[in-house]
Amino acid sequence: MPLRSSAAARVAVLVLALLGAVPARAAVFIDDAERRVRLPETVTRVMAANQAAAVLVFVLAPDKLIGWAHPLTEAQRRLLPARYARLPTVGRLSGRYPTATAATVARLHPDLVIYCGPPSPAAAALADRIERDTGVPAIVADSAIGRSFAALRRLGAALGVAARGDTLGLYAEHVLDTIRGTMLIEPPAQRPLVYYGRGFDGLETGPAGAAVMADIDQVGAINVAASLGPGESVRVTPADIRFWNPDFIIAQRRSFYDALLHERRWQGLAAVRNKRVFLAPDAPFGWLDDPLGINRLIGLYWLSSLFYKSMAQPDLPTLTAEFYQTFYNVKLTNRQLDALLKAAEPPPPSAPPPAAPVAPLTLPPAAGIPGIPGIGALPALPGAPSPPGQMQNPGGTPTVRP
Q1: What is the DSSP string of 56-92?
Q2: What is the spatial distance between Cα 398 and Cα 239, in angstroms, rounded to a whole number?
């Protein structure tokens, strides 16, 4: 009997040891490509398959990001907290020419790989291939700006920072609701014609539905190159831009912005004549693209402040400082803020022309009646001109073409 009890005890100890060696059951996460992904119990190291995913992880759980998918410029590093600006470049697993491989993943030992982009069959195939080749779970997160609030909340929960995801998701939802409210008020006839010039020469743009045009579409502006699709990018000519004659031109690169201001071939454009040429801010990440991630939220506020001057607009410098503090944990100095907005801030509204000076009306004193202080204005004499009232501005906000 004692022998049997001892044997049973040893078996029980062995069973408990084996159970203890089995990891806890992983959670199942349904990603935005409708794939079932088994997440590890704890996620501490995350590899971004592209730069949009790196930004998404950075704003949610920066200590879990193991590196950037693309190298950062010096200007970008200056507007990031130092410890994250120094993160290495690990390469990207997506795109036509990926710079990272399964061997890179094996060397870095991430707990999770995240790709941020349209949840297409191609994106699902990429995530499946990453899992098959590396053994590391991979998630597809939707990059659509109109769904950014959902991506922030869902990925926050997957990374174990649900409260942070809810906070940023609420902010994103507020931005989108504000912009949609503007669209309900603004008449369609007031929507401006816009050209977004990408690349160093500004002759690359996006047709209808292109991800690079998402912010411009969201604020209700009219993309002059909409009919050139399909696709993500098209090349145009200077003659095309002159034919469209847009009300606004947004330059992605300073070289195109400077050319618009100084080269003779652009001087006949309405946008140039009316000083409606702007350079899109891009540090630490682009306000309209580069990458195509949640960094574009601040671009919605910016474009609204440019296009709809007839409506009351919130203060752009204050909104910018708030966004950078909330999402990037960066408190901008006044100098940094000024540098960021120098070519991006809309010009002040035109002041109404001053009214022509009007000579004061002088009435002759009534015969035999001395003047009495405190009585106020005397009634006008018959035939005398009426006192001038406050003149209204005959101008106003220019009407843009539908």
Answers
A1: HHHHH-GGGB--BSSPPPHHHHHTS-HHHHTPPB---
A2: 25
Tell me: do 243 and 295 sit in the same domain.
yes
Per the model's pLDDT, the better-predicted residue between 351 and 17 turns out to be 351
User: Is the confidence at residue 22, as pLDDT, over 90?
Assistant: no
* One domain, residues 139 and 215: no
193 and 158, same domain (yes or no): no
**Boundary of a domain, candidates 292, 313, 341:** 341
Q: What is the pLDDT of residue 210?
A: 95
Q: What is the pLDDT of residues 207-241, one digit of tens each?
A: 999 999 999 999 999 999 999 978 899 999 999 99
- Residues 92, 234, single domain; the answer is no
Mean pLDDT of 361-367: 37
Q: What is the CATH number of the domain that holds 38?
A: 3.40.50.1980
Same domain, 206 and 334: yes
Type of residue at 12: A
In this structure, are residues 183 and 193 in contact, taking their beta carbons and an 8 Å threshold? no
Contact between 37 and 28 (Cβ < 8 Å): yes
Query: Which residue shows structure tokens 């947004």?
Result: 250
**The two three-digit tokens of residue 207, written as one number:** 């047709």
State whether 275 and 311 are in the same domain: yes
Name the domain count of the chain. 2
In contact, 274 and 244? CB cutoff 8 Å = no
Measured distance CA(193)–CA(336) in Å, rounded: 31
Per-residue model confidence as pLDDT tens digits over 317-339: 999 999 999 999 999 999 999 99
Query: Residue for token digits 């847009």?
Result: 246
User: Is 247 among the domain residues?
Assistant: yes
- The answer to whether the beta carbons of residues 159 and 60 sit under 8 Å apart is yes
- Residue that has been written with the tokens 């998404």 in this structure: 56
